[in-house]
Design a protein that fits this description.
Helix content is about 50%, strand content about 10%. It is built from twelve helices and nine strands. The strands form four sheets. It has a three-stranded antiparallel β-sheet, with no helix packed on it. It has a two-stranded antiparallel sheet with strand order 4-5. Strands 6-7 form a two-stranded parallel ribbon. The longest helix has 29 residues, at about 205-235. It is elongated.
């Protein structure tokens, strides 16, 4: 049974968002955003999701057509007939050969901006090689005669884009955002504004939960430390309150350990999240993570507080201060490694994957593993 996910790019608007196409037995059954792509970052608009309708449109042209009626005009049947690709290429080659022999400048290339890939090939490679510089590109009233003229007059630039970084609400009339905001809103925000490339390691609902639990735990430890120091200095024991605080913190420490495991186990969806997890567990931040977060921030305080509430131990006040101090230090290390371990999503340029980690390079982010350019 043929069942595969194929990475590709959506061509239904300027954005060219990264997509994944699910094919079963030779039939496309689903299209969704590709989380590995910086263009869309796993998101896809309804137009892209409905690409299957275009693929399997019963009126879609799948073979070349040839006009058999030389007469042209309204209500005149052109007499289209299907021909083979070989016949179509032979016909085009014959006509191009004739034009080039007479005068290459007779060939004119006309195109519009949405067909960027063939247009770039035609303008930059084919037409110069053929010997003609007669190229005409325009979207007419939708582009060259409207937006560019107005943008150049007002801003001194041909392109205009909304300042999304400082925009709270964007209202677009009569068009989707990619076209209305010139060519590609996602390219504009994700590539041209490189400073706001996403950090997937932080973009998870588990992270706020982790920080919430850690904040509650370290908050109780801070209160525990203050009460213990106060009781030692003033001779006012607060055993009942301290025992209740430590029982609550035992629960929070166990919960924090569970959330940490959950947070790291779910960090595998993209190249960047896997690199972040590797930085924490086996990379440059491993000592701070295992020693500062896990050992000093969770394991040792949990063991000491468990002993404090179950067995009377000598020097209990001193051990309580050590436990609380280590817990506070562990909370600081937790925030440090999460922030420092954030790896930005890679950029995809010229078919190569270039990594842009916030810290030093990581082996998992090497361009095109297997000897690609560095």
């Amino acid at each position: 049974m043929d069942d595969a996910w194929i990475p590709s790019a959506c061509s239904l608007c300027y954005n060219q968002c990264g997509i994944r196409v699910h094919k079963k037995n030779g039939v496309v059954v689903k299209i969704e955003g590709n989380p590995e792509s910086p263009l869309g970052m796993g998101r896809l608009c309804p137009k892209g999701l409905a690409g299957i309708m275009l693929l399997y449109d019963p009126h879609r042209l799948k073979v070349p057509l040839k006009r058999t009626n030389p007469l042209k005009g309204i209500h005149v049947d052109p007499g289209w007939v299907e021909i083979t690709w070989e016949e179509a290429l032979a016909t085009i080659t014959e006509k191009l050969r004739k034009i080039r022999a007479e005068d290459p400048r007779k060939l004119v290339l006309a195109g519009c901006v949405p067909s960027l890939s063939p247009l770039v090939f035609g303008m930059g490679i084919f037409m110069p090689a053929f010997g003609s510089s007669n190229v005409f590109v325009s979207n007419g009233h939708q582009c060259g005669n409207a937006e560019h003229l107005l943008a150049a007059t007002l801003h001194g630039a041909l392109t205009t884009n909304p300042d999304l970084e400082h925009t709270n609400y964007l209202l677009v009339f009569g068009s989707h955002c990619g076209t209305a905001a010139y060519y590609a809103t996602m390219i504009y925000t994700g590539l041209l504004l490189g400073a706001i490339r996403p950090i997937p390691f932080w973009s998870t609902p588990i992270l706020p939960l982790l920080f919430l639990v850690s904040s509650l735990s370290t908050g109780l430890m801070a209160v525990d430390l203050l009460l213990t120091v106060s009781a030692a200095l003033n001779g006012n024991p607060a055993d009942g309150i301290l025992e209740a605080l430590r029982m609550a913190d035992l629960f929070l420490l166990a919960l924090e350990a569970t959330v940490v495991v959950l947070y790291l186990s779910l960090a595998h969806a993209t190249v960047a999240t896997r690199a972040s997890r590797a930085l924490l567990t086996v990379g440059a931040l491993a000592r701070r993570f295992w020693g500062g977060v896990v050992l000093a921030g969770i394991v040792v305080p949990f063991i000491l507080q468990l002993l404090e509430v179950t067995y009377p131990i000598p020097g209990e006040a001193a051990w309580a201060m050590v436990s609380s101090s280590l817990g506070l230090l562990g909370g600081l290390f937790l925030r440090h490694v999460v922030i420092a371990g954030g790896v930005k999503s890679p950029l995809n340029a010229a078919g190569l994957l270039f990594a842009t980690p916030s810290r030093g390079p990581h082996p998992s982010l090497s361009p095109l593993a297997g000897g690609g350019p560095r």
